[in-house]
Specification:
193 residues; mainly beta; 11-stranded mixed β-sheet; globular; disordered N terminus
């Protein structure tokens, strides 16, 4: 019967999303296990967001609630640990996790590293929407899954982005890359079609 209905009249398919626990919440951004707020910084080694720009490396977050999108600036930001567990049933964690439906843009400046020490860990996840990584800095990702986005994933860093020790380097619906080096024991780039 569906074959008789013109495609233009069928409801649009929902944007793909990654299953995450209800405790994470919608429209949330976590960096290094810390839930961030709009226009706040997370200093390297910090465990809570601050309003003033710190000396040294940091992650900075701006949230556009009108389009449900997050903008992250990483400046000489280094994190090593388990991040936030976003799917307890499958024991999955991420160093950076966004559940904003409009996706996330990450701008890299300086020398940055996101290292997830947990098995089944991911360095950078956008649970909904698109994931764009750009900038002029060096970004090193070290995790079982380097970058995951259920929608479009773009890496266009004018500096360099390295993904190392990964089983899968990048996974997304559509993947666009430039200035990228992936060292993966399994799949370097996986695009779901």
């Amino acid at each position: 019967l569906l074959g008789l209905i013109p495609a233009a009249l069928l409801p649009a398919a929902a944007a793909p999303s990654l299953p995450y626990d209800a405790t994470i919440g919608n429209d949330a951004i976590y960096i290094g296990g810390v839930r961030m707020r709009d226009k706040t910084y997370l200093p390297v080694g910090g465990n809570m967001p601050v309003g003033e720009k710190p000396d040294g490396g940091y992650a900075y977050v701006e949230i556009n609630t009108d389009i449900s999108k997050v903008y992250i600036t990483l400046f000489d930001y280094v994190y090593e640990g388990e991040g936030i567990t976003y799917n307890a049933a499958e024991d999955m964690s991420a160093v950076i996790l966004s559940t904003f439906s409009g996706g996330v843009n990450v701008y890299v400046n300086g020398e940055c590293a996101l290292i997830n020490t947990k098995n089944n860990g991911t360095a950078l996840v956008s649970a909904n929407g698109t994931l764009n990584i750009g900038g002029r800095g060096l970004l090193t990702l070290d995790a079982d899954l380097g970058i995951y986005g259920p929608g479009r994933v773009s890496v266009y860093n004018d500096g360099k982005t390295y993904i190392q020790n990964a089983v899968t380097g990048i996974q997304g619906d559509k993947v666009t890359v430039d200035c990228l080096k992936v060292e993966a024991s399994g799949t370097a780039i996986f695009a779901e079609i």
